[in-house]
Amino acid sequence: MTINVSDIFENVGEYPYKAEISLEELKGLKGFEFISPISLDILFRNRAGIVTLEYSAESELSVKCDRCLKPIIRREKKSFEHVMAHSLANGDENDDYIVVPDYVADMTEIALTDILLEFPSKILCTDDCKGLCPVCGTDLNETDCGHTHSED
Ligand SMILES: [Zn+2]
Ligand SMILES: [Zn+2]
To answer: Phi/psi zone of residue 103: left (φ > 0), alpha (ψ -120 to 50 degrees), beta?
Structure first.
């Protein structure tokens, strides 16, 4: 989903949008199994010519516990904020800025970049997940196979 922001850059004010990233669009993401569309609650603001983008993204993913590999559903609502710029001076690289040379904000790309960047590298089904036995692979949350008593 793209939003043309040229009017927003020209006129001071607040510009709310709602958007959705469809499952179809989310399919191509390797390693991330979204189970519902991502819904975006978007607010562009032009304050004295400075354009900011604030939005929240609600997502629902199926992930595997890092220790026991059990599938878990992870629901998240996260907020992000950026400053929009038509161009950056001196070719500055700055992740806080979103540069829109053609005044088109690609919300799909912006939101997916933000969400995936913040995604934790380790996810556990419960904080004290016991994981799998390194010897026989038994799920230690369910069965105590007796292999791990000597460790620790
Ligand atoms: Zn687990
Ligand atoms: Zn075992």
So the answer is: left
Report the distance separating Cα 88 and Cα 111, nearest Å: 21
pLDDT of residue 38: 97
The CA distance from 135 to 39, in Å, is 43
| CA–CA distance, 47 with 108 (Å, rounded to integer) | 24
Ligand nearest to the backbone CA of 135: 2
Burial 58-92 (b: 16+ CB within 10 A, else e): ebebebebebbebeeeeeeeeebebebbeeeeeee
| Low pLDDT (below 70) residues in the chain | 90-95, 148-152
Ligand closest in space to the Cα of 148:
2
Query: Which pLDDT value is given to residue 87?
Result: 85
34 CA distance to ligand 1 middle (Å): 19
Distance CA(129)–CA(4), nearest Å, equals: 46
